[in-house]
Each structure stands twice: as C-alpha cells, then as structure tokens.
Amino acid sequence: MEQLARLEDLPTRYVADLTQKNLVPLWPSLRNVLPPLKPIPHTQAISWKFKDIKPLLIEAGELTPIEKAERRVLVLANPGHGLENMRATSVIYLGMQLLLPKEWAPAHRHTPNAVRLIVEGEKAYTTVEGEKCPMSHGDLILTPSGLWHEHGHDGDEPVIWLDVLDLPLVYYMEASYVEGGECQPVTNTGTKSRYGKGLVPTQHHIRAKNNYPMLRYPWAEAKQLLNDLAEAQSQGPIQVAYVNPETGEDCQKIIGYSAVMVRANETIQMSPCSAAQVFHVIEGQLELQIGTDTFNLEKADTACAPCFAQVDLINKSSEPCFIFIADEAPIQKKLDLYSVRERN
Length: 344
Ligand code: GTQ
What we know:
Blueprint: H1 12-20, H2 30-33, E1 46-48, H3 50-63, H4 66-69, E2 73-75, E3 93-99, E4 104-110, E5 114-120, E6 124-128, E7 131-135, E8 140-143, E9 149-153, E10 159-165, H5 167-172, E11 178-180, E12 216-217, H6 219-232, E13 238-241, E14 256-262, E15 267-270, E16 277-283, E17 286-290, E18 293-297, E19 302-305, E20 311-314, E21 321-327, H7 329-334
Antiparallel strand pairs: 1-19, 2-3, 3-10, 4-9, 4-11, 5-8, 5-10, 6-7, 6-9, 8-12, 13-14, 14-21, 15-20, 16-19, 16-21, 17-18, 17-20
Bound molecules: 2,5-dihydroxybenzoic acid.
C-alpha cells in the first residue's frame, strides 16, 4: 500500500487553521485507523504472576479498610493501553479482589457485566439478586448488567478472586455507571446446580426480569465434564463453554467464557482469531506461547493475548492443566467483526 502524505508535509499555518476550526486531515492517519490486513493492537501479550499480586493484595488489606475501598481490588492493567486506563484488552477488565474474614462489600448494581472466578480461600459468597452463591476455588459466578450484588465472608482465611468485566467497552461507550444500595435480602439459597439435573424449582422457571437462569457454575462440575470428555476422546482439544442453559448461548453478551483441559504432555495450537483473549490457570502448569513470547504460568497466574496472535498451550508436566479463558468473541460475533485464520 502506498505511503501517504504526513502531517509535517502540510504548512504549519494550514494545520493551525484546521485545528482552530476543530478539523483534522484524514490522510496522515488513514493507515493507522485502517491498517492493511489486520489491526494494530494496543493490547500487549503479558502475564501477571499470582505470587507477585498476592502479597500486595494482602498489604492492601492492611492499608485500606473495606469501608474505604468498597471493592478492594488490584487491577491487572495492560501497559499497552496505559496503566491508568485499567484495561487488559480493549474490551476486558481484570482485577484481583481480596475479602478478609467478616468483611462485607456492600450491594450495588452497575451497567458493565462482571464475573468472578474464585482463586483462593473458602466461605466467601456473592449474593446476586437475592441468590446467595457460595465461592469455592474455580467456581464461576455471574453478576450480569443491572443485577444487584454484594460480597460477604463467613470464613477465617482471606479469600481472593479474579473479577472479569466488560468495563473498558462499556466505559468507552459512555454507558458505565453504578447505583449503590444497602444489604439485599437473601431470597433464594441452596440453588446449587439448578440445571445440572434438568430440573428447576418452578418459582424460577419464569423470570420476569432477566434471562440469567444460572448465576453460579461450580468448578467441580466443569472439571468433571472436561475429564469425561477427555476420557471419551483421547486426542484433540477439550474445551467447554459457559452457556445460558436455557438458550445454549454465551452466558454473557459481551465477553465469552470457557474452560480448557490441556492433557499431560500435550500442546494445543489455537487458530489466530480476531478476538483478544485472557488465560487464567485454575489447576496445573502451563507454558503459554503467544507469538514469540513465552510465559511459564502456574496455578492462579493470568495472561492475555492480542487479536490474531498465534497461541500455543503447552503442558510439559505429567498432570493435566485446566485453564479458564475469557474472550471478546460474543460481542465481535454480534457486530459481524469476528474471524478466524489459518496458522502460519
Ligand atoms: O465486585 O462489584 O473489580 O463493581 C470492579 C468493579 C469488582 C464488584 C471490580 C466492581 C466489582
């Protein structure tokens, strides 16, 4: 593609006149906003080690009481987007949240969608629209747009979880805001796995307000399914998507969630795709190759890959590795922006 004229090729007086009238010439920026063949991502391939995050998060627990933080979170920020913008990718926000025993993060609801993937600790819970969802390692809990949620902790060790939100996109759209509230009444407990057995309490069958029939996806069930699939199929990638059990669609509208099993001594070569991705190790050890970068990840470590990256998931250990993936595919598919390419 031909090189186009630069801003410096124009007379300074002319550029000043344009600026004064709030006008901008397109051609010096045309190749940046419409680069040939693939986007130029700000998202860098990077990783965050849990062993680096945890001591700083525990220290935050000493430095800032929960009442002064509301949500005690260290944000996993991608330097490619500028740390202050708090983005892992252009769509995905990641944070590690700490709740100490007896602490309580008050109810609120906001326009961005969130999920929690529990990293460490027992006996915390998130109450979503009156449904008390226990938090155990590897569980996925949805707090979709507009649903009230609060976090509490009945245990005696710190609990840490990974927050994934579509905040960067919703904020960019100038659609991000929160409503604060008080304690919500718990109306619905013991709903563990309402759909797992194909039976639902009738009072939940027709929901006037939301189409989020399942708010908690226990890790024990996801892991069991991955193991069952691996037993039935000795080769090829083993991946399960977190879906709305009533519609079979992605469980949230903007970000997609899935879990992958990488068998002992297996390499999974992923096809480059237009959606950026986040990887978080639930169990095991993973060598993650993103283009020419290699990241050695252990349990609770997190990484992200930009669009169209060539990604390899390599398990060199003798134990299976289980990974949680968040990606931008649902929103890109809705906007007809999603594509997958052959590997080089
Ligand atoms: O727990 O509700 O990481 O509102 C960022 C914003 C967590 C939460 C975050 C939030 C929350």
